[in-house]
Structure formats: C-alpha cells, structure tokens
Amino acid sequence: MNILKQAITIIFIFLFSYVQAQDSIYVRNMVNKLTSPKFWGRGYTKGGMQKTAIFLSEEFKRIGVKPTQQYFSFPVNTFSGKMFVSINGITLQPGKDYIVSNESSGLKEKTSLQKIDSLTFQAGNNLKVLFKDKLTWSVATDVSNSTTILINKKTVTHTPKEIIVDIENKFISNFEASNVLGFVKGTKYPDSVLLITAHYDHLGGMGKNTYFPGANDNAAGVATLLSLAKYYAKNPPTYSIGFICFAAEEAGLLGSKYFTENRLIPLKSIKFLINLDLVGTGESGMTVVNATVYPKAFAMLKAVNEAHNYLPKINSRGKAPNSDHYFFSENGVPAFFFYTQGGISAYHDIYDRPETLPLTKYNNLFKLIVGFNQKLMN
Fold first, then answer.
1. Using one digit for the tens of pLDDT, what is the confidence trace for 305-352?
2. Boundaries of each Peptidase M28 domain copy (predicted)?
C-alpha cells in the first residue's frame, strides 16, 4: 500500500511539474508574440493596439474563456511618419541615440544650437535639445507648440553646434481602443467575483522603423493573466473569476478609469482584485501596492508565500496611483497591485525585450496567486 501511495505521489508530482513546464512555455510564447513587430509596441501607430485586442480576444476563445470587448476613445499624440535627427552632421538612431518628447509637435529645420547649460541647448523658440543619462519614453494625450529632442549623453561626444530635424507627428483627437474581458463563472457563488487585471498596451512606435517591445511592461503581466485564465477555465473555482486586459494604461490609466465609470461587472460584486504589471522578474521578490490599505489580505498573502517559499521577499507599499488597480480601490474595491524585482532594469525604452526577460519566478508567482485566491474564497 505504501508503495502504491508513493507511486501515486510521484506520478502526481511529475504531472504537476509537466503542467507547470507547459505553462512556462505558454507564457514565454505569449511574451514573444506580444512583443513582436506585428503588434508594433501595442500602441498608437500601425494599428498596434487594435491588432493586440483582436489577438487577446481570440486567445481567450482558444483557451475556453468567453471574451468581451469594451470600446472607448481618447486623444493621443503619435509619431508614425518621418523621424530624422542629426547633430554636427552625424545621423542619430531613434530610441537608441535620441527620443522625441511625447508631447512634441512635428518640425523640419536645420539650425545652430545655443548653449543654455551643460545639458540644455536651444534653437529658437520651437526647438529644445536636452542631454540625458537614460532615454525613457511615454504617451501624451495633447500636443505642444514646440519640439523637444532628448539625446543620450554617450552619443554626442563633441559640443553640439548644428542640428537637422525632420519629424512628423499626428495628433489623433479620437483614438479608438478597447478593454478585453474574459469570465469564468463560479461553481458555487457566481455573484462573488475575483478579478485579475493587466494592461496590454505599451508605447507603440516612434517613426517608421522603431518600436518599443514592452516585454516586462506589460507583456509579462498579460501572459501571466492568460495562463491564469487558462487554468481557471479548466478548473472553475467556487467564486467567479474575471480577467481584464486594459488598454491605454500608458496614456494615464484611461482604460481602467473608463471601466469603473462604465461597469460591465458590478463593483460591489468584486471581492478582490489583483493587478499584474511588471511581473517578468522576481529574483529579488515582489512589492504589493495597497498592502498597508488592506493589512489582513496582505498578511494572508505573506502566509501563503512563507508556507511554500514562492518568492524570496514580499514588500509592503501603501496607496499609489501608478497602475490599473487605482480607480478600483478609489471606488471601494479591495485591490492589490503586484510588481516584481530583480533581473533587467529596462523600462519604457527599446531594451525591454523578450530575450532579456528572465521569467524565472513565473511558476512561483502563478502558484502564489492561485493559493491567495483560494484563501480569499475560503
């Protein structure tokens, strides 16, 4: 009998390890797809965000979760056309050597540069050049009357005297996007809902040849959400589980704000929300935003982690309006925002790539979330 039990245990461990290995492959494949040129940074040019929404909807269907899309629109400044900058006759590479400030207008000009200080140069009233240690980009929902070029300090070793700029911007007053939702109905308490959320948008592209892959931010979060949806579709829990991939987080949490104002799920039915953003690492642990706001839930999460040693450390952080959990907790929904530490430091730049994203703690983060959800349902 003992031999039989041991054999069953060994088989169970083998099968569980095999499933986890398969899930790791699935998550890696999802990250690779979401960061591919096809989706062009999941942003505002070349149809990147719209193509991603269609892909996510189809993926929900494929793994057995019925999808819904929630459409909305907002203004955004984009750069889909010409993108040329040279300093002292040397052509610079967008993303690597320079970026255009997100609210900049287009400009075509050849002019001399006037030094303001060691890091700032001016060319008339409409062009400013700033030298930076690190180039990070973002998204603007309006456009200014001037152009600002941010240049990597390591690129230009001589005093900049002349600049040639040929940049096209396009301001879209009514950019169309959609949140993508999936839902698994609970077996016992279908009106009680746990939510898993992650934003699928990133920064898109700058010019015709440069895009920002956004592997950690936030292909990793979306891939983890999809793996959880896949798991719960096969193993429906007592509570219902909702999955929301938000658009327009990078433009100011616009997708999640829109959802809380135009609710497809009654907020009072949401018992807890876990938002996943920047979860592709974990070697140094994880931080939980809103931990001090919901201390009992945080203590429960830490207990699950310590019982299994999933992550080396879980750090507590207070309230912060830095991701899609924010408008939910502001509307009375208990919510945590998880982000991991360690590994790569790339953020909002062209170096946030899938090939450098470790995903070393994905399996343990997955188990932690499932274990925490089970505690919440109990």
1. 999 999 999 999 999 999 999 999 999 999 999 999 999 889 999 999
2. 179-369
Q: For the chain, which residues make up each domain, given as ranges?
A: 28-77+173-377, 82-167
The mean pLDDT of 199-226, rounded to a whole number, is 98
**HEC string for the chain:** CHHHHHHHHHHHHHHHHHHHHHHHHHHHHHHHHHCCHHHHHHCCCCCHHHHHHHHHHHHHHHCCCEEEEEEEEEEEEECCCCEEEEECCEECCECCCEEECCCCCCEEEEEECEEEECCEEEECCCEEEEEECCCCCCCCCCCCCCEEEEEECCCCCCCCCEEEEEECCEEEEEEEEEEEEEEECCCCEEEEEEEEEEECCCCCECCCCCECCCHHHHHHHHHHHHHHHHHHHHCCCCEEEEEEEECCCCCCCHHHHHHHHCCCCCHHHEEEEEEECCCCCCCCEEEEECCCCCHHHHHHHHHHHHHHCCCCCEEEECCCCCCCCHHHHHCCCCEEEEEEECCCCCCCCCCCCHHHCCCCCHHHHHHHHHHHHHHHHC
What is the CATH code of the structural domain delimited by 28-77+173-377? 3.40.630.10
Residue 289 has what pLDDT? Answer: 98
